[in-house]
Amino acid sequence: VLALPEVLECHRVAGEDSYLLKVRTTNTRTLDKLLVDSLRTIPGVTRTYTTIVLSSAKEDPRIHLDPKETA
Q1: Pick the residue with more confidence: 40 or 68?
Q2: Which pLDDT value is given to residue 71?
C-alpha cells in the first residue's frame, strides 16, 4: 500500500473496518483497476468498501497544532 502512488493516506482504525485509505484516481475505471489489480491482491484483504467523494468543501493537507496541546 505504501508504494502505490494513488494512496495518499493510510490509517489503521477502530471499528468494523481495519484500515481507511484515501486514494486519488483519474476516474471510476482507474479506481476499479486499483481495487482489483492492486488492493485486493494483498494477502489478508478479503473485502473493500468504497465511498466516492463528489465534492470537497475544504481540503487542507497541513496539520494545525496548538502549541499548548503539544507541550
Answers
A1: 40
A2: 54
